[in-house]
Write a structure and sequence with these properties.
The protein is mainly β. Helices cover 10% and strands 35% of the residues. Strands 4-5-6-7 form a four-stranded antiparallel beta sheet, with no helix packed on it.
């Protein structure tokens, strides 16, 4: 939970969503290792604060950044306000991911909304989607709402493509402002940078983590200077997108990535064989110590 970081939620394969208070575990990290050195048990049996269920196992789970105790979960979309869950209608067989709108979009739309890449719900006026549209030709796996430009949505598909949408263009019929087919396997995670409005990163089942800057364009003059400087010993592939900023490899079965909210340019990625913490050398950053 954004407002109370020690409160966490989890899905279970039984179809239940459970809310936990991990404050005792976090406090234990700050304490000395005296008890551990004496052989004290590190296993804790803890009951969840809240438990409620869906008919089936689900995948999507997200806290509201503005309203404390408001949690969304889905096979169908379920809004939990800290008392009892309220289900919202959806035609999808399951909801794989969703993100909550941020403050600018709340003001623009006049209410709180959530988005699952096919439908937008207004939880104050009804349980049916306010609007729906086709997002990709294949299943939509993940999505991310831009915190610095709240009209922009990024989504990653099972066919390896990702798209950028401007929600202000929804009424005009074609809200796609960028579409890329670089990855050849499913996109497993996608997230906008919290520090640069035009930068986002994603992971794919092709074992690549890629970082993109959508503000970049081909610069022929710069390419000529680069070739002259390197005596054409290093040439970028002709089919390389100019917006592709960095490629990180070495992990197998990448599942998720997140930008560090306090250290610009730092990312954490998780995979079947461990996790990596990285800071790409070609991303300009200002560390807290430099401020």
């Amino acid at each position: 939970m954004t407002q109370n970081p020690h409160i966490c939620a989890s899905w279970a394969d039984t179809g239940h969503v459970q809310v936990w208070d991990f404050s005792s575990h976090l406090n234990a990290l700050a304490e000395s290792e005296t008890e551990a050195s004496r052989g004290a048990s590190s296993v804790f049996n803890q009951a969840p604060l809240v438990k409620f269920g869906h008919k089936d196992e689900g995948f999507a789970l997200d806290w509201s950044p503005l309203v404390p105790r408001r949690l969304l979960s889905g096979t169908t979309v379920n809004v939990f306000n800290g008392i009892l869950p309220s289900s919202f209608e959806t035609n999808d067989s399951f909801t794989s991911d969703f993100k909550r709108g941020l403050q600018e979009l709340y003001t623009f739309m006049g209410t709180y909304i959530w988005f699952d890449m096919k439908s937008i719900w207004d939880i104050r006026i009804g349980k049916a989607p306010a609007t729906s549209f086709k997002a990709h030709n294949a299943d939509v796996n993940v999505m991310s709402w831009n915190r610095l430009a709240s009209c922009m949505l990024a989504s990653g598909s099972d066919d390896g493509t990702f798209s950028i949408r401007d929600l202000r263009l929804l009424k005009e019929g074609d809200s796609v402002v960028a579409h890329c087919e670089y990855h050849k396997h499913p996109i497993t995670s996608i997230e906008w940078s919290p520090h640069e409005a035009s930068t986002l990163a994603m992971t794919s089942s092709d074992n690549q983590l890629t970082i993109w800057d959508l503000s970049l364009e081909n610069d022929e003059k710069e390419e000529v200077e680069f070739k002259a400087k390197t005596k054409e010993e290093v040439n970028a592939p002709k089919d390389l997108p100019p917006q592709l900023l960095f490629v990180h490899q070495g992990q197998k079965d990448l599942k998720e990535l997140h930008w560090h909210t306090q250290i610009p340019g730092m990312l954490v990625s998780t995979a079947a064989d461990g996790y990596n913490i990285l800071m790409p050398s070609n991303i300009q950053t200002t560390l807290p110590s430099d401020l």
